[in-house]
TrEMBL record, chains A, B, C:
It comes from Paenibacillus phoenicis. Coiled coil: none annotated. Residues 29-180, 211-349 form the Sodium/calcium exchanger membrane region domain. Residues 1-20 form the signal peptide. This is Ca(2+)/H(+) antiporter.
């Protein structure tokens, strides 16, 4: 990761992005610059999180890693919620989930599989991940199907959304307790070595105090560049004739997850497929079980309540992604062709979202 | 089980329930009393069935256990069919299936998992159960989807329902032959010990003649208290503003399955997870593959034909329950967090049914 | 196979079928004769393909076998496309997929399971097959759900169809490379012996030159009898009051797949369950991933563009078939009752298609 993020480059794009925003440059240029800035700053945030996690000890560190892992997406999404762009919020949640399950996982399996004939990882963890994915899709699917077949009072719709969101957050917290405390060893056998190694590679660069300072700075920077990026999207969709859905699900999601993408693919090529799968699947689970429910609560704090009802095609996209990802990961071994299958589904969804 | 059912308590609640019914007590009071009576009498019926099964020898005994296992639900449902309350029949079938797959199984895995880190059972049986669940949901889903997209003559709708019901009953009988005769040992390896032990714990209490007599008495008593319970439901739904769907799917289903609930959870805590899963999953399979189809035929005997078409949200509820239960049980090992996931889905469905 | 196809019988039915067609015999008689002719000629084609494959060497031979395996269906479907009978094309694609996954596989598991208590095959191949089936159903499901919820310009609908078709064909070619070149041994362990044996049983009958000649002759004959068969279908549906859907999905599909049916069942009874599953599952994958997409492209060549959008009930039928087949095959072992379950689903679908 180190080689990818030069501090100078980071500051230059942050500054350019700010100038573009306040000086009202052309939306396309501003979009490109702020997208690059988001990718760089998200990478910086990821590194700062890892460093703080290193000093915080294994348990709290694991928790921090898990919680800040999608901080960039969460902040972008909060900006979108504040602007009332609910459709784009949901599209970007959809895009993050399918982007991680299909594009990141697909490229990881493909690249890793070209170098290594068969790659293996903990089959019990794969099974648990699969069940969590099923719960995530159920939690999004049930409110949608009930609300499509019955007309509900607005209060009831929000009540249902809040209860479902609450259930998911509790389930996610219990999952952290389960996977990091009560059944840590149970889930770790094969990828243990990878997990141990990872923090050590990057961590020693900064002192404890510096790490915390950088984490704060990175979070603030992400908040700013995210806002600047979000502001360009309206014009962008109009200029290029793209749908909010496509921009949210593919453009925003790819930008917001770029850091995970490169990390997962590099790990897969080093035959650390367990860690790569954890990034891709873990990230999408976090978005479905933690980021999305938190956004429901945040929207109520802003006084602009958002419900948890996704559109039919968003649900279909998430559903098919979960099914193919579950089918491919559940046997605990992967190969290049399984990567091809995930990418094929991603392409089919991408073209479909582009055309509607 | 013995300690749970005192004959005196049983007779008192049976008598109170009868008085409530014929003296027209308040519907709420009558509901509470007859619900308790149903739970007690169903427990008595379960014990009598086990005792008769003990004397009948392993094969016929297994068949009796399997067939009388859901006798209480079947009798309640027949009462509802006779009254023409088809919506509530289907809601209670839905509720029995999801109650067993989510609540009973969820509490069993959670309670068992808190005491035992990982609990294991026969993975081949888990696979067969999974496939049977899939067939059950297909049998309910296919007629619904065909009838939603095509207008069928009434005769054809009933013909389709009867054929599907017939196919399911034949499949269920062949499953009994498969699991109790041709492949008995194949499915039994881990839980064998549990299965052997269970009958011996309760059986010796009654002589052969007494057991049969009690089985007859219990069946008659269930029939009466079920009818008294059913009569309270109309007023109950009106008074509390509950939907038929919610009462059928959650209230009736929980009352009708109370005996299974306690048995499964106690078995799970004793680390007999195979037997606990068998009660929960086996019970829901029996309802889908045997009770529901029998009700279709029974309704024709009453001259009030009922079709097999469930509503979209009932199908969705059964569908998601099958998917998460299959995903969780298919690896043949369970832990407390898997119980949490099942209960999370149950809560999401419960709130949804309550609000619509 | 040898004993099933007598050259004299083949020629007699081919001649009768031609006479029936040009002399305008009654549609029913002509249908019966040309159906028998199709079955015989398809068997001849299958044998010629195997023989050519034998001389072509393992890799090219495998490719030929895979590509010509469904030549009869492909040719029948091309005839239907040329006539513009798109509904019947899609119905017959649906029927081929569900016929292979439910009827052929079901009869194979049932017949094989009656003779052999448990039959085992390569579990890795089973997993890959399952994932491919999921991709196939996703590729058909996604365009349908997007087009049902959004009105698309006609050009965009065909563009979407062509892109999806292209993705599937590329995935199918990569699958051939994966399964026959890069991971051949990985997928072959258990059924290896079967695969080796099969060509040798039939191959030596003809010389290399004769084999190629017969392959050409058989292909031309299939083209003719297929066209004669297709011409009888219109009158047949009208005379017997059958829907295009039922005729396409059950009658045409059974006739077109008769050769696979008998081969798979005989292999299963000889305990070569791996080869039997390969025929059934492989055949349905080939139709979904290769035949269907090729037909989309062919329809554009004919100037009568066909889209890839299947009806709701066709998708439902394919979807449930994939789910039950995947659930049953994924553990790499089979028994007679799993055959019963597949046949039960086939019967439910058959009655449903017949009644609508």
């Amino acid at each position: 990761m180190k080689k990818f993020i030069s501090p100078a480059l980071l500051l230059i794009f942050f500054a350019l992005s700010a100038m573009g925003h306040y000086a009202h440059w052309s939306a396309t240029l501003e979009f490109v610059i702020s997208a690059i800035a988001v990718i760089l700053v998200a990478g910086f945030l990821g590194r700062a999180t890892e460093s703080v996690a290193h000093y915080a000890g294994q348990r709290l560190g694991g928790f921090l890693n898990a919680t800040f892992g999608n901080a960039a997406e969460l902040i972008i999404a909060i900006m979108l919620v504040r602007e009332g762009l609910f459709d784009m919020v949901k599209a970007s949640i959809t895009g993050s989930i399918i982007g991680n399950l299909l594009l990141v996982l697909g490229l990881s399996l493909f690249a890793g599989g070209l170098k290594h004939k068969v790659q293996k990882y903990n089959v019990t963890l794969a099974g648990m991940n699969g069940s969590l994915m099923i719960v995530a899709i159920i939690a999004l699917f049930v409110p949608a199907i009930f609300l499509q077949t019955h007309v509900l009072h607005e209060d009831d719709r929000f009540a249902l959304s809040l209860v479902v969101a609450g259930v998911l957050i509790v389930a996610y917290i219990l999952w952290l307790i389960f996977s990091m405390i009560t059944h840590k060893n149970h889930l770790a056998d094969i990828s243990e070595k990878d997990a141990e190694e990872l923090p050590h590679e990057h961590a020693p660069a900064w002192s404890k105090g510096k790490s915390i300072l950088y984490l704060v700075i990175a979070t603030v920077m992400v908040a700013f560049v995210s806002e600047w990026l979000v502001h360009t999207l309206d014009t962008l969709t109009a200029d290029f004739g793209l749908s909010e859905l496509f921009v949210g699900a593919f453009v925003v999601a790819i930008v917001g997850n770029a850091a995970e993408h490169s990390a997962a693919i590099m790990l897969a090529m080093k035959n650390k497929i367990g860690a790569a799968v954890e990034i891709a699947v873990g990230s999408s689970l976090q978005i479905a079980l933690f980021v999305a429910p938190v956004l429901i609560f945040v929207s109520h704090l802003f006084g602009k309540p958002m419900d948890i009802v996704f559109t039919v095609i968003e649900l279909a996209a998430i559903g098919v992604s979960v099914f193919i990802a579950k089918s491919i990961t559940q046997d605990g071994q992967t190969n290049w062709f399984e990567g091809v299958l995930l990418l094929a589904v991603y392409m089919i969804l991408g073209v479909s979202f582009y055309l509607v």
